[in-house]
TrEMBL record:
It is a multi-pass membrane protein. This is Mechanosensitive ion channel. It is found in: Cell membrane. It comes from Christiangramia lutea. Residues 181-261 form the Mechanosensitive ion channel MscS C-terminal domain. GO terms for cellular component: plasma membrane. Keywords: Cell membrane, Membrane, Transmembrane, Transmembrane helix.
């Protein structure tokens, strides 16, 4: 390549820098200042949310949405500095938005699901929920996903769209929850005798809701034994520890009183022989 070519290229580059250089510098400065400004705004917003009485689930959602909107506004300003007309800018973003929307229909559904969750509040951060065959405590509600932590320490991330369209069993929305113990006894046992024994065992629990009933009822007559339903109430957050402790307490109280669990028996008849039991 000859010398004239390089001189012409240098002149064109110089003209380009003179024409567009200041805008690039302004855009770069705006980007840097904008990022710092967004960080300051988010710190102020997080502090205001911490001081307010807004639920934790709403706080995380607002923070995620605010970051998205602030960066979108920053890029809009940078585009304007670079000479992109507002109408063109909106048209480009509109076209891009349609394309992205078609490609990310699931994400838009998740966003709408997150809004529905925060508006209608089927659950909040800290609740124990059962949804889509998963049981766990709600750790975070984001703009697109909900995270729960299971009893064995796993973190499960579920799309908000699926969650908002599913049946959600919120097991801590009510303060108290009933414990149901299914017990089996031989037909030889006297129900009026074992009922106060079971109640006495359950009433010893320190976290029992004493203003709610403790009761024992015959629930079903089985083939080999009668089935008893023993019920009491505890605070929802104490349900599983209390359930296991109550089951153990009832067993110990029955053992103390000499009440045995049923053993299946079979009666065999044979012609010409006496009845045989096993």
């Amino acid at each position: 390549m000859d010398k004239d070519f390089w001189l012409e290229l240098k002149e064109q580059l110089l003209v380009f820098l003179i024409e567009i250089g200041p805008e690039l510098i302004y855009a770069l400065v705006t980007l840097i200042v904008g990022i710092f400004a967004i960080r300051i705004i988010m710190n102020i917003l997080k502090g205001a949310l911490r001081r307010s009485k807004v639920e934790l689930s709403l706080k995380t959602f607002v923070e995620s949405l605010s970051i998205f909107l602030l960066y979108g506004f920053l890029f809009f300003i940078i585009g304007s500095i670079l000479g992109i007309k507002t109408t063109s800018f909106i048209a480009v973003f509109g076209a891009a938005g349609i394309a992205v929307g078609l490609a990310l229909q699931g994400s838009l559904s998740n966003f709408a699901g997150g809004v529905l969750i925060l508006v209608f509040k089927p659950f909040k951060v800290g609740d124990l929920i059962y949804v889509n065959e998963k049981l766990g405590f709600v750790e975070k509600i984001d703009i697109l996903y909900t995270r729960i932590k299971t009893f064995d320490g796993r973190i499960i991330t579920m799309p908000n769209g699926n969650v908002s369209n599913s049946d959600v069993d919120n097991r801590t929305m009510e303060r108290y929850r009933r414990i149901d113990l299914d017990l089996k006894f031989s037909f030889d046992e006297d129900l009026d005798h074992i009922r106060p024994i079971i109640i006495a065992g359950m009433e010893k629990h320190p976290k029992l809701a004493t203003h709610l009933p403790v009761d024992v009822w015959l629930n079903e007559i089985g083939e080999y034994q009668m089935k008893i339903k023993a019920r009491c109430w505890v605070e929802s957050v104490e349900y599983w520890p209390a359930y296991w402790e109550q089951l153990e307490a009832v067993k110990k109280e029955l053992d103390k009183q000499g009440v045995k669990m049923p053993i299946p028996k079979h009666e065999i008849y044979k012609e010409g022989m006496a009845q045989i039991s096993s």
